[in-house]
Amino acid sequence: MTAPPARIKAPGARTVPVAAALLLGAAVALSGCGRLAEQIDAAESQPPTAPAAGPLATAPVVPSPSPVPATSAAAPSSAPAPPPTPVPTKAPELSLTQSQQSLPAEVVKACGSMLTGTLPERLPAAEAGACVEASMRAGTGALQSLSTRATGLPAGEHTAALSTAPEFGLHLRNEEHGVEVIVSGGEGYLLTPKGGTPADPEGGPEERFAAVLVEAASATADPAAVGALLADSGEFLVTPRSERDGMLYTRLSAVSGPELQGVKMATLDIELDELMRPAHLSVSGFEHEILTSVEVGFSKWGTPQVVTPPALAQLGGLR
After folding, report:
1. Which residues pair with 296 in a beta bridge?
2. Which residues lie in Pro residues bias regions (predicted)?
């Protein structure tokens, strides 16, 4: 005999048979499955969309690696960084002629850019001055012929013998006026038909007058004075083959002239022989519309000249 179905009764509720309850749950489940199937079909028929961003769309948390301890940077040094080492420049290669092989080392050093076989188009004034000064000293002695106008010397023609080594000496003569200017042993003298006097820029009128003439004569004869004259000029233009009296020279022409005895010169040209010694020097300028000029020719380089001071009897003053 089959037992009657059990009944489940909640407090305050009607009693429902167990079988009926099971049938009711199954019906609800089947109804839910039907709706789920319809939702799946509808979702598959829609195009895929990107997942919406939001609190639930976050990427999984990946544990970050352990921080590596930072290396402490070295404290900057208070000492300044050393300047960069300059790249050494290659000295120009010399190209000496057979005659130039005998040049002293000091002349080769001072005139290096003029002895490379290819002359520069321009030459700095300081380099020109150093070259000519060194070559004049190496020349030991020479003769001069001068033509002057409105300078410290009497206007006209002059001749001179000069010694450039071991010390500077000069004996200049003006035959027309009977004037002689002598430099010997570091002292200067003036001799005239009326007597003679030593030169002293701090002395009396006669001594000061003599000092002016000594300075004017030395300006184009003393190696140091000629070097300073060139160095005081502007940059020089270089003409490799300048002809004079059938001879070829290297000509240097100043872009701007130097100052000569307080007068600003407009031009300075100097022609150098193969051993870089001056063969011709020309300086000119204007002061108060008056032309000042000096033309100097050099000859007999390498001939020692002995210059002696005048006798005391000749220095009794300008009477």
Report:
1. 146, 281
2. 79-89
Q: Are 233 and 258 in contact (CB under 8 A)?
A: yes
CA angle 49, 51, 52 (to 5 degrees): 110
Tokens of 308: 């002696």
What's the average model confidence in pLDDT over 244-251? 89
**Position 318: which residue type?**
L
* All domains of the chain in start order, with CATH: 115-308 (2.50.20.20)
Residues 6+ apart with CB under 8 A from 306: 163, 169
pTM score:
0.69
Q: Is 35 exposed, middle or buried (0-12, 13-18, 19+ CB in 10 A)?
A: exposed
Reported as a single tens digit per residue, the pLDDT across 25-80 is 433 343 444 454 454 454 445 555 444 444 434 444 545 555 545 444 455 556 67
- Conformation bin of residue 313: beta by default, left when phi > 0, alpha when psi is -120 to 50: alpha
